[in-house]
Amino acid sequence: MPELPEVEIAARSLASQVTGRTIVGLERLDWERMLEPLSAEAFEAMISGRCITQVARRAKWVLLHLANDLTMAIHLRMSGNLTVHDPAEPARTHVHLIICLDDGRRIFFDDERKFGRVRLLDPDGMAALDAAHGPEPLEETFTAATLAHILAGRRTKIKPLLLDQRLIAGMGNIYASEALWLARLHPLLPAVAIDANGVAALHQAIRAILTQAIEHEGSSLRNYRNGYGRRGQQQDYFLVYDRAGQPCQRCGTTIERVVIAQRSTFFCPVCQRLPES
């Protein structure tokens, strides 16, 4: 599933291509269940004639802000991509939504597994989406003290806690594993057991790995492409994720894989030793 870096790059690469363009209609919508909760006819009527004033991101949502206080919120889920194409370019089989722009180009929502979702939000709906998510980990206001407050008193294991969008926005399976390796924290360590030094290390690690992944335009393990159709490169720089059986880059110990909260988790049993209880 695309995580914060991939969604950030999706938004940035769309913004550079479609900001200021006006939506003129739909060419294709063959999977109506991606719309929450509108019909295809209502969706097209509401977006047609509206200018895209800004493209942004909140958590794992791409936000197309439209004229007159309407926002198209798009969640890529497992396999979604948003790309911009010239008029004559054919659409692939799994492109289930095509939005037509006033210059003839089109936005494709390619979603092989059909898990992606699209919502149209008024200001109240946008406020509700915002309130449903925790702080953005790359904002200046996300300090070590902020993270300490989130972790305080919680006995939840740190790995699944990092994936809880209500607590920290945009973190996902890949970058949680990477950040925990950088911080030398075992993924099964209860959040409440992390001391001040551990919190500071984890805060620094989260921000560092997300920043690096954005610089490398995200990770493309299978489907992910940015708005220009390009793959990301962060998978070439993984520290621990998807490296089970390979030597730890820090100490040489074999990286292990476990399943935590139904997610594959990778860690070094020496560098990220779980303290004895």
UniProtKB/TrEMBL annotation:
Domain FPG-type, first and last residues per copy: 239-273
Keywords: DNA damage, DNA repair, DNA-binding, Glycosidase, Hydrolase, Lyase, Metal-binding, Multifunctional enzyme, Zinc, Zinc-finger
Record Pfam families: Fapy_DNA_glyco, H2TH, zf-FPG_IleRS
GO molecular function, one term: oxidized purine nucleobase lesion DNA N-glycosylase activity
EC number: 3.2.2.23, 4.2.99.18
Note describing how the cofactor binds: Binds 1 zinc ion per subunit.
Residue intervals of the Formamidopyrimidine-DNA glycosylase catalytic domain: 2-116
Catalytic activity: Hydrolysis of DNA containing ring-opened 7-methylguanine residues, releasing 2,6-diamino-4-hydroxy-5-(N-methyl)formamidopyrimidine; 2'-deoxyribonucleotide-(2'-deoxyribose 5'-phosphate)-2'-deoxyribonucleotide-DNA = a 3'-end 2'-deoxyribonucleotide-(2,3-dehydro-2,3-deoxyribose 5'-phosphate)-DNA + a 5'-end 5'-phospho-2'-deoxyribonucleoside-DNA + H(+)
Signal among keywords: no
InterPro entries: DNA_glyclase_Znf_dom_DNA_BS (IPR015887), FPG_cat (IPR012319), FPG_Glyclase (IPR020629), FPG_N (IPR035937), H2TH_FPG (IPR015886), Ribosomal_uS13-like_H2TH (IPR010979), Znf_DNA_glyclase/AP_lyase (IPR000214), Znf_FPG/IleRS (IPR010663)
Binding site for DNA: H94, R113, R154
Keyword Transcription regulation carried by entry: no
Annotated active site: P2 (schiff-base intermediate with dna), E3 (proton donor), K60 (proton donor), R263 (proton donor)
SUPFAM superfamilies: Glucocorticoid receptor-like (DNA-binding domain), N-terminal domain of MutM-like DNA repair proteins, S13-like H2TH domain
Cofactor: Zn(2+)
Family note: Belongs to the FPG family.
Function: Involved in base excision repair of DNA damaged by oxidation or by mutagenic agents. Acts as DNA glycosylase that recognizes and removes damaged bases. Has a preference for oxidized purines, such as 7,8-dihydro-8-oxoguanine (8-oxoG). Has AP (apurinic/apyrimidinic) lyase activity and introduces nicks in the DNA strand. Cleaves the DNA backbone by beta-delta elimination to generate a single-strand break at the site of the removed base with both 3'- and 5'-phosphates.
Oligomer status and interactors: Monomer.
Protein name stated in the entry: Formamidopyrimidine-DNA glycosylase
Species, as recorded: Candidatus Chloroploca mongolica
Name of the coding gene: mutM
